[in-house]
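Expect sequence, tokenised fold; for instance:
***
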Amino acid sequence: MSAQTELILLIENFKNQRPLRAGSLIISLFGDAITPRADKVWLGSLFELLSPFGINERLVRTSVYRLVNENWLQADKQGRRSYYCLTNSGSKRFNNAFEHVYQMKTPHWQGSWCLIFLNQLMGDKKKEVRDELEWLSFGALGNDVMLHPRINRLDISALLNELECQQDVIVMQTESISEKSPQALYKQVNESWNLDQLANRYHDFISTFNPLYQAIKQNMDLTDQDCHLARTLLIHEYRKIVLKDPQLPDPLLPNDWEGYQARQLCRSLYQSLYSQADNWLDLHLENELGKLPPVDDNFYQRFGGL
């Protein structure tokens, strides 16, 4: 099939999802297309970007309102127009998350673990902290302990301070005393992150987007807007998986781990799409100053360099 036909199938599959999570797609758009250009975007631009995905203006307004209430976005109303930008806390979460999405190499692992004990937290506060740690791809070690093989301690300190619980949790950095990872550790990793489920999601991602990539290699018949739509869906679906992946070291992963193949596919397809997609975005993203500027230099460092 042609690339256009493959794209139509991808868009129809997205439209048929229930529930249709417009807020999550808006998060993907901000991280991939908007923040590399400017801090703020006009609501009308979001209408135009989201309409081809079957998301009407009412649903966009409702989703943006929820993101404001969840402290992801903040509104700036000027006359009859509304503009939206990330909050300070939303920006920090974006930076952490999308750095994870676009990195190409797994950082070296020293064999240590970050452990965070939540047993002194109660009720809703414990759930809030757990949810934020899971957003950073922490796994669970029992009911009240979260763990991660590599995490920036400054990011954790800033997060706990923002959540006003720094004095109520215990944070430790462990050091391995064995040269090789024992079988028990491998089993624990599978329990903490459900690697089988993660592997299945990577497999589905490859099955979903590889036909489009192969079609593009044969004949690139996509318009600039088509490339924007394909790139948005690509990053949206990849983001939902990779943010649940703590990027464990090789000794703790299966030999046929499909996360590596999914990462390479995402990079290759992104490289095929991003330039034409940017051509379209340059013409259709606005804020109170007019058209948004072109992407910044950091954009071209994505996936190890575009």
Notes: The CA atoms of residues 10 and 208 lie 8 Å apart. The chain has eleven helices and nine strands. The radius of gyration is 20 Å. The chain has a mean pLDDT of 91.
